[in-house]
Amino acid sequence: MGILRMLTFVPDEPMLKFQYRVQMGKKLDVKYPKTYTEKLQLYKMYYRNPVMHQCVDKYEVRQYVESKGLGKYLNELYGVYDSVSEIDWDKLPDKFIIKTTSGGGGNNIVICCDKSTFDTSVVEEKLNLKMSNKSGSFSAGREWAYTNNKTKIIVEKLLEGNEEFSQGLADYKILCFQGEPKVVILDVDRYVNHLRNFYDTKWNNLNILSDHEQINREIPKPDNLEEMLDVARILSSDFPHARIDLYNIKGRIIFGEITFYPWSGYVKFTPQSFDEQLGSYFDTTTFANH
Q1: Long-range Cβ contacts of 57-63 (<8 Å, 24+ apart)
Q2: SS3 assignment, position 69
Q3: Is 95 exposed, middle or buried (0-12, 13-18, 19+ CB in 10 A)?
Q4: How far is CA 276 from CA 31, 36, 258, 268, 288, in A?
Q5: Does pLDDT of 157 surpass 80?
Q6: Which runs of consecutive H residues, i.e. helices, occur in the chain?
Q7: How many CB atoms lie within 10 A of CB 66?
Q8: Strands 171-177 and 180-188: what pairing?
Q9: Which region holds residue 70: left if phi is over 0, alpha if psi is between -120 and 50, else beta?
Q10: pLDDT tens track for 192-204
Q11: Which residues of 137-176 are buried (b: 16+ CB within 10 A; e: fewer)?
Q12: Which 3 state secondary structure label does DSSP give 263?
């Protein structure tokens, strides 16, 4: 990371070509891209929509969701803060989740399941470190949407209730292209033994391997799958590509996040033809000259 920070003067195209070769073991074709992972690199290089900054911020995105008439799908918000020191622990419920607004996966999250035994110093150590290491205009993977965003801390309701998944919530990640859902990725047991399946929009298992093993049991089609797909259509409609993440708890759909660069474009699928299949959905001609 330190080396990449030192190389910020290198333009995006040569840097992403270098990263792609290192990560994927092959040349990045920017002139005649065919695969999804190639086109994601062009997305990072050339697509500039200011609304993306709002959508990747875990607090500001709430306004975007509400502007689309989907406010009922938002998780309950307890507070938003500029620093950990501002949090009034006495006013929070017994259970909650704390995260930074700039993302960072599991590294930016602290979960409280019982406030009576909760060590607030863990939050101060973990999230204060996150706040002090704010990337500013820097993104190691040259992900433009994540640059120049101000980091805050939010506290939300702790989501629970997926009895069919023993190790945490199931996460439905819907890949959309030109506002149309094409693939649903289901992640389960994320913090224990992360497993992942890929489905089409009719809930047929595509039997794709990526960076996690497949789920070794049959997962029934959600009764409200069509509603989830409709939510994804609306939230992705302003962009050539977006991944819309949703939770589905006892039939209630709850918005998770919007992501524009899944895996930062560095993922190997088995079979490899799936990379081209996803690439066929991704029209980059509107923003990249090739």
Answers
A1: 57/101, 57/102, 57/149, 58/99, 58/100, 58/101, 58/102, 58/103, 58/154, 58/257, 59/101, 59/152, 59/154, 60/101, 61/257, 61/258
A2: coil
A3: middle
A4: 15, 6, 23, 11, 18
A5: yes
A6: 2-6, 12-24, 36-46, 51-56, 61-67, 120-132, 225-236, 273-281
A7: 13
A8: antiparallel
A9: alpha
A10: 788 999 999 999 9
A11: eebbbbbbbbeebebbbbbbebbeebeebeebbbbbbbbb
A12: helix
Record the tokens describing residue 248, joined without a space: 């589905």
Contacts made by residues 81-84, CB under 8 angstroms, sequence distance 24+: 81/152, 81/153, 81/154, 81/155, 82/152, 82/153, 83/128, 83/131, 83/153, 84/123, 84/124, 84/127, 84/128, 84/131, 84/153
Confidence of residue 148 (pLDDT cuts 50, 70, 90): confident
- Per residue in 50-85, pLDDT tens? 999 999 999 999 999 999 999 999 999 999 999 888
Distance (Å, whole) CA 224 – CA 254: 12
At 188, phi and psi to the nearest 5?
-130, 160
Residue 67 has which token pair?
């502007």
In single-letter form, the type of residue at position 115 comes to: K
Q: Which residue has the tokens 């993306």?
A: 52
Q: How far apart are CA 83 and CA 86, in angstroms?
A: 6
Amino acid (one-letter) located at 58:
K
Please indicate, yes or no, whether the overall pTM of this predicted structure exceeds 0.90: yes
